[in-house]
What does this fold into?
Amino acid sequence: MMHVGVIGAGAVGLACAFHLRRAGYRVTLVDETGAVSGASYGNAGTFAPYACIPVNNPSVFPNIPHYLLSGDSPFRIRPTYVPRMLPWLASFLRHSAAARSRASSAALATLLLRAQSGWDPILDRLGRDLIDGQECLYLYETQAAFEAARPELEFRRELGVAFDLLARADISAMEPALAPRFTQGVLFRGSWRFRSPHRLLLQLAECLAQDGVPLIREEACRIEAENAGAILHVRSGTALSFDQIVLAAGAKSRALAASCGDSIPLDTERGYHVAFQTGEGLLSRPCGLAERGIYMTPMMGELRAAGTVELAGFTPRRSAGLLSHIGSSARAAVPALSGPTTTWLGFRPTLPDGLPVLGFARRSKRVIYAFGHQHVGLTLAGITGEIVASLAAGQPLKTDITPFLCDRFVRR
It folds into this structure.
């Protein structure tokens, strides 16, 4: 029986382990901090097959001064971090040009529209008690903002995303706790929410443990691919031997991919949330605030306001301005919200073209990459696991992963 090591026990790593074990492989998880301790813990909890428009798009060009200087921008670049990431930013701007951005959206849509098929076997095993079928509502405060978004919405429709347009009265009837400030809404069909993504993923980790998948709490340092297999060197000095290794370490994947010979321009997005412990029953569904870059999602015991993008690396210092932006935006949208609140900071992987890295390392098929999912890691976890299991088995893929291969930046 082939033995596959999966580096990373977040949503993507756990889903990869599930699909590999389901296919009959012996699987071992490796994660220094344990299961569901990173970005998978504090996300917005939405299953978002409509989220095919990446951050890199033409709208970034006129907004660069806003991103650098404004106190209420949902996308921020910490000025002291700019020199360190100049090559990444240059590539990001190239991929924000219309043609490249549309190509990224089209590629991402091919994965997102199959995302449910990857989650179904997992939910069949775990049950659907922590899943709620209420579809996501995206909200616009001004008619001007909605009109500006129309071309993007029509492009989503071209890519196969289904949605309904709602007027002010429809929004109020659907979510009466919302302030009457939203002029237009978009209800995305086929979306849903996790009532507690953390709890569901912990259940998945427990299920894997019951199926004989151990979790080794070691820091992965270097991957060594050989003809006969792959070796993972960990911080304690131990060398773990596998037939194949899956790299699903999210924002920490760059150095490990480099040890395989692949230079990948992976950086870090810092994502935040503010959780209102008394707000669980105020909304019935995830509500996205288009102009403010956040989602408000009802979860078990709280209403979680999550989102924004901050490019500032792994520094643990939290941005008081971003937390204030999230909290005040949520309170303006739902006037009944009050404290107490808790806050969270997590580190998402980000690539300049807005696409994940999937497929084999260039030098060896002993290593499979599955990282860089940015804002849609929870949504794409299942389909990523399905793809990884097919790659490990040498089976034909149902989805063309050429746009996601690790050599795409070299090819360009």
Summary: The mean pLDDT is 94.
